[in-house]
Automatic annotation (TrEMBL):
Boundaries of every Antitoxin VbhA domain copy: 9-55
Protein name: Antitoxin VbhA domain-containing protein
Superkingdom of source: Bacteria
Coiled-coil boundaries: none
The species this protein was found in: Desulfosporosinus hippei DSM 8344
Amino acid sequence: MSPELHARRLAAVKLANAVNKIEGVPVSIQAKKLSAQWVRGEISGAEMKAMLIAKHKQS
């Protein structure tokens, strides 16, 4: 993964977490872990979304 793509993904995660915080929505540890994996290119955005949905369905 290029440094530029990594930086864009990291900025996207930080923005998403900030928006959630402003809206009063807590970001779970699981979501933070998945976001970090996505930033590093270990999983795709679709995989991250599917894992988050599966986790929420368990709750």
